[in-house]
Amino acid sequence: MSQTGEILSNVNLKGDYYSIEFYAPETAASAQPGQFVHVKIGDDRGDWILRRPFSICNTDPEKGIVNVVYKVVGKGTAALAKTAPGVCCDVMGPLGNGFVPVPGTIPVAVCGGYGAAATFMLTRQKEKGVLLLGARSTADIILTERYEAAGFDVRLATNDGSAGTKGFVTDLIPQLLAENPGKKYCFYACGPHPMLMALARQLRSLGEMGQLSIDHRMCCGVGSCFACVVKVNAPGTADGWRYARSCSEGPVFNLEDVYVEE
Amino acid sequence: MADLAVDLGKFQLKNPVMTASGTFGYGFEYNKYYDISQLGAVVVKGIRMTPSHGNPTPRVAEVTGGMLNAIGLQGPGVEKFLHGEEYMPFLRKTGASVIVNIWGTTVAEYAEVAERLEADKEGITALEINISCPNVKAGGAAFGTDTALAAEVISAVRKATTLPLITKLSPNVTKITDFAKTAEDCGSDAVSLINTLSAMSIDIETRRPVLANKTGGLSGPAVKPVAVRMVYETARAVKIPVIGMGGIMTAEDAIEFFLAGATAIAVGTANFVDPFAPVKVIAVINDYLDRHNCKSIYDIIGKVETA
């Protein structure tokens, strides 16, 4: 569950987005869509000491390869972006509960920005599905070629209208449903918190099935520190909700369990 | 192999490496990685009478040489702790020495939790009284930064249980030895120190505190020299054993605490970086003792040369 993952490749996709491959055979052997790895970048004890969690984008179990797509957002990921192949990073994982494909439904990945990395392994399902991808602008649209190559129908929405529909990713859902009335879909989502909450409200009002990958700033990654909690429904309790650890009880939660504030 | 067993007065441990409360969950999470009964003791996350949500998120922030946390003692409450499958029933099955960290928002609640655990104490080695959490509005450090209030809490808990008591001290005081002496006078069998240092981090782009709680507790390598100094002073001020903690990432760090006078130590933040940290610390302490021809851990406890 913890291995010295040699970096096999580490390439810039565009802007601040990178795709990295680790040699991590134990992780590659069992990773499910939506699970994550917890990576120690270098052995620095100064500017950062904690691991960094990354969704597993793809694996090659035969070659023992784990692929992660990440964005440079701080010191840790900036250092990772400068790390050359051959260097080893301690890779823990797979961690967390992933997406559980629902047989007999068409998979629809609903993602914000590089959240599309978390749902990519759903393209391994026999049933070819749809990627609804939202982003601020075309500069934040990544991974669409991979989804298309895997046979997924890719549809875009950007806040500035620079790619696809101008608006939010949730705006793409009514049309999808109208195209094929009677088809059964399951929505699998990963993205920023406000997007996920808007999606949860929408899917509930439409009566659709869904699974949402929700997390918060993570620390231990294994359920011991209670840093990364998110609100889930807790029927029968005074407040009706409780804080669940996104690392060990999530990051993927069923739509019914997600607590949506009024 | 040197003898690692230590005597903490009212209880003995097979080795002096414990886990710091709040950094090891309830043991369940780490038993997936190794047999937690190898540890000197497992100190679980703080338990009070009722379940607690804890603080809003973000609850952690990384800083140079460490991290801030303001979890706010989220927990299941004492009944679920005693009966929930992944808590005490699980810990009993592992055979680990279990130390239960307890807290309350009133003196009466501290005593009540101790009494409840006393009634179901099979598998519990000791209680650790948390009068030092900086992240809860009521309880915690409110009792640990005033010697009169600390005395009230410790005395009340002492009356409520026959279990060995450890008092966990706050570093956010002018003179920590005053609090150690108070603990000793009120019947505490040991003291543990340090809890986290009250701290703050601000995002300069948004001009907002990084933590939702605004302030939090600093832990990790940055606090170690402060903790070593406090352990050194405390070990000279009281007769009861001192359990040292604060930024211990490696066995080398732990050995500094033993030399300063700690009879046992706890690994905290390091658990978040490397789940195997405490077992690695045990192994390397053994190597160090062998290399220095020490037959027992007592050959280094309090043996800092200050002459």
Helix-strand blueprint:
The complex is a heterodimer of chains A (262) and B (307).
Chain A: E1 2-14, E2 17-23, H1 25-30, E3 36-40, E4 52-55, E5 58-60, E6 65-71, H2 75-81, E7 88-95, E8 106-112, H3 116-119, E9 130-135, H4 144-149, E10 153-158, E11 165-166, H5 173-179, E12 185-190, H6 193-206, E13 209-213, E14 229-233, E15 241-245, E16 252-254
Parallel strand pairs in A: 8-9, 8-12, 9-10, 10-11, 12-13
Antiparallel strand pairs in A: 1-2, 1-7, 2-6, 3-4, 3-7, 5-6, 13-16, 14-15
Chain B: E1 6-7, E2 12-13, E3 17-19, H1 28-31, E4 42-47, E5 60-63, E6 66-69, H2 78-83, H3 88-94, E7 98-102, H4 107-118, E8 124-130, H5 141-144, H6 147-160, E9 165-168, H7 176-185, E10 190-193, E11 197-200, E12 202-203, E13 208-209, E14 215-219, H8 224-237, E15 242-245, H9 251-260, E16 264-267, H10 270-273, H11 277-291
Parallel strand pairs in B: 3-16, 4-7, 7-8, 8-9, 9-10, 10-15, 15-16
Antiparallel strand pairs in B: 1-2, 5-6, 6-14, 11-14, 12-13
Helix pairs in contact in B: 4-6, 6-7, 7-8, 8-9, 9-11
